[in-house]
Structures are given as C-alpha cells and as structure tokens.
Amino acid sequence: MVNKPHKGATIAIQPRIRKGAFFDAAWRHGCRKFSVYNRTYISSTFSNPTEEYWNVTKNVAIWPVMGERQVEISGSDAAEFVQLLTSRDMSTCSVNQCKYALITDESGGIVCDPIILKLSNDRFWLSTSDCDLELWAKGVAVHAPFKDIKISDANVSVVQIQGPKSPNVICDMFGEEVLDLKYYWHRTVNFQGTELRISRTGWSGEFGYELYLENYEQGDALFDALIDIGKPYGAAPGAVNQTRRIESGILSWGVDMGVEENPYEVGLGRLVELENDNKFIGRSELEKIRKQPLEKTLVGLIIEGPTIEANETPWDLLYKGEKIGRLTSLSYSPRLEKNIALGLVRNEYSTVGTELSVFTWEGEKPIYVSNLPFLPKLQTGDARALLNNSKI
C-alpha cells in the first residue's frame, strides 16, 4: 500500500559510515541531504532538484560522489582475473582506457555494473555501483587458479564535473591538452603537486568528467578550486540529477536492475561479448539465455500531469488489475513537463503505447510505456567545440 513520502527524514552521522575526502566541503557548500552508498556518505541535493537540473543541462554541476568507490585489482595475474569477472572482452582494453562492464553471477544475474579503468597491464580500478563488489571479487579469488592478485578498496574519492561547460572548467584548471581526452579514456593531471586521474565519464547524460583523488587531505582544496574556477561558467555544487539520468536511460544498479535480472532483460546485451574464447562467470548461462525469449523487459514509462514525488520503493505496475511488473525509478522532467520513469514489465506488455496503471502517493494513475531514452545522451563529442559556449 502506498502511503506518503517520508519528508523530513534525516540520516545519522556515525563512525561506521565513511565520509570521503569531499564530505566537509559538501557540508560547507550547503549540502544537508546525504545517502549511504558503498558504506560511504554520498551527497544529494544542495539546493533543489529543479534548480540543479537546469544547471547540469546548461552550465556545470560539481558533484562530490564519494560513494563511488574504486576496487583495485593488481598483480601479475590481475588482467586474467578481471576477465574472469566480466563479460566484456578486456583484451581490447588499452592502458588508460575505460570500459562500462557487467559483473555476472553463475546464473547470468547482474552482480554489479562498474566502469573498469585500466591503469597499467597489472593494475585496474573497478569504479563500483552500490554493491559488495570488493567482497565478491575476494570470494571469487579464493577459488580462482591465480596466485598473484591483490584486491583492495583504493580509498579514492570521486568528484564529477558534469554539464556542457565542463570542458571550460577542466581546461582552465588543468590545461588545454586535457581537452583531447576521448570519451571513456582517462589520464593523469597535476593538482598542487599531486597526481590525479581524470576520465571522460559521468552519470548525468551530459558531457562531463570524473576526477579521482587518492590524497584524502586535498579534498577541501580540490573542491573549492573547482567551484572558484568554474564560477564564470555557472559551476555550482549539486548532485548529478536523477531526472537527467532517467531521461538518458542510464540505469541504477540495485534499483533498475540487480542479480534477478540478466543483461538482455535490461537492454545491456551489448556488454555480453561472446565472439571470443574468454572464460567468465556466467558465460554458459548467458549463452543459453540470449537464445531464449525474454520474460521481462526494461521500459520507459510516462505519467501525464503534475509532479509526483519520487518512489521510495518499487511500485507495482498493473494491467487491468493484474500485476505485470514494477516501476523502479520515477522523476519529473522539467523539459518534457511529464513524470518519467523506468520499469520492468512482462515482455508481452512492453510495446510502446501500452496503457498500464500504477498506485502512486496520490492514488492510482494511468501510465504509458514509452521509448527509451526520453532525451538523448550528450556525453560524446568534441570538448574543444564546446569551448565556444560563452561565459555566463
């Protein structure tokens, strides 16, 4: 039964939850809403979601995303071990390249969907979603036929610089050569004598970058520098907007997919690369699954009318009173002027235009299956071309 959203709820600050290098900076810059992600506080809204939506789509959002932990896998057997974990063909991944990847279990279920950064031939970072990836990797390693593997949390704090004017901020801070960084590649830059890693990645659907800080003590200085240098371009602290990622069809592990879903059901079959002899966990099952009809499918959904508060739990999707799926993520799009959502439905109800119903905070509403994405991703392209954006 849907009741009312839990507005005014707070989260306790306590020692067992990690803060990350940017926690105090986020607090100083006005963040009072935090969640817990990978046993780490992650900053949420600084001002209000609509204001932050327009800023990430028009200017620059600086989001301290400390919960995006890096599971480091190193050693002479690291490359073979990483290949055992993922369905991506890592033989095509160069040093300083990133790959969006899936980690699957023995049944083909999605354990995690990290971005894998190849730092060297024997050192990798797995930039993890909110899952126990470090423990999973250590459990696999116990039974793997490899001897020289080290698995640890690299204690890296990430800050995302996202939005159409992010190249201006990055160029002013690190120099023009950074503009040549290609989508899903990374490199090192210098900040106050310390080496940082920067990647052309992000969770916003907008053009952007992620900075990886290993020196915890520099968190305040790095965050303040990004804000100061970004002021002429409208840079402001803010979470990479939930609305924008739903518009772009970017999935959240643990919400839109998990171990009960396989890659084909959530539209990520392209990440299962089987035209090779790689051995990875779940391969035999995924080879079978890809030949079978889908039982459920991830779809876009639209609810017309005024803003509806985001769901706190999955909401049942109904067809003529029968449960046929669940709504996983919901937000109001200021540009589309509609409530948009992601959901999983039985495959026979996944046709665009199908009318379903859902019980929201405000009672039962009609909801329609839509195409994905609602709006395109704008993450690729030429950083130098975006420099033509004038200062605000």
Task: Give a summary of the structure in a few sentences.
The chain is of the alpha+beta class and 392 residues long.
Describe this structure in words.
The protein is an alpha+beta fold and 392 residues long. A six-stranded mixed sheet has the order 12-13-14-11-3-15, sandwiched between helices. Helix 5 packs across helix 6. The longest helix is centred in the middle third of the chain and has 12 residues. The N and C termini lie far apart (47 Å). The relative contact order is 0.16.
What key phrases describe this protein's structure?
globular, six-stranded antiparallel barrel, six-stranded mixed beta sheet, 9 helices, alpha+beta, 392 residues
Secondary-structure map:
Layout: H1 23-28, E1 34-37, E2 40-43, H2 49-58, E3 60-64, E4 70-74, H3 78-85, E5 98-100, E6 103-104, E7 110-112, E8 115-120, E9 123-127, H4 133-143, E10 150-153, E11 157-162, H5 166-174, E12 186-191, E13 194-199, E14 208-213, H6 219-230, E15 235-237, H7 242-247, H8 283-289, E16 296-303, E17 315-319, E18 322-333, E19 338-346, E20 355-360, E21 363-370, H9 383-386
Parallel strand pairs: 3-15
Antiparallel strand pairs: 1-2, 3-11, 4-9, 4-10, 5-8, 6-7, 8-9, 11-14, 12-13, 13-14, 16-19, 16-21, 17-18, 17-20, 18-19, 20-21
